[in-house]
Batch of 4 targets.
Target 1
Amino acid sequence: ALKLDAGRGADANASKNDGSTPLHLCAARGLFAMAQLLLDQGARRSSVTVSGSSPADRAQLFRDERLVQLL
């Protein structure tokens, strides 16, 4: 089972210099279960990169309808 360890400082909304978050990565890689876990741990669907891309935008770009619906 997957589990985000917030007790050890894991941040579901951590972002890279370009503004991408773990949720953006999951959306781009088709990682549905991990995306669900991140959302359960408080990841924000509304996060955007410096270019304005949301996790849902990434899922749509990669044509992952299941993730698009989730996000």
Target 2
Amino acid sequence: EYQMLIYFIDNKRKILSRDQLLDHIWGYDYYGDQRIVDTYVKKLRKKLKEAAPYIRTDRKSTRLNSSHHWL
């Protein structure tokens, strides 16, 4: 979750695909289910509490909306 948050911050306002997140966080050789990204985004949102809405997700990608002061 920490690596994911840092990756979001480093790529703020960029649209990141599940594949990009998998490659960066779990490595190119990861052969598990891509839905692990969804699970970790959900866990990260839960920990971020009121800041959770700043992580935006659609069916194919996730991004961090960095226009807010907490970043």
Target 3
Amino acid sequence: SNAYRFCRFILENSNLPAAHFQAITCLRDTILKEWFNIPQEERENTRNFLFQFVVLKRSQDFVERQILQA
């Protein structure tokens, strides 16, 4: 979806923790709403992307907690 691509763009290109938090919140809501319409491979790719984001970006705690809820 467009929301998914937009959120991922923000996470990949922004250095602002508040932007990361909002993008993760939007991504979580999108995933929950569209879960059964998302192909299995895309679900796995999203999960891997979020785990890598936590490891590589070393986000602030409030962002990491939001990622773990996604």
Target 4
Amino acid sequence: AIGDLDAETARRLSPLMQVLPPSGDVLVAVGGAETAQFLLQSRGFASAWQADGRTAELMVVAKLNHYDIVQ
């Protein structure tokens, strides 16, 4: 567990474990300066949408992380 976040809580809160909305496409943006795990999670999220027959674009923005990608 990390702090108060145990494995079950992490699974429950994960976007990958949520029910997809009935329709729609998604753009998944992730910083290229992120850790391997952030990049893996972003790829997994985009793949989950694609596996459901939806359009998902993965945008890796070089030299940024989750703090400065939204600026």
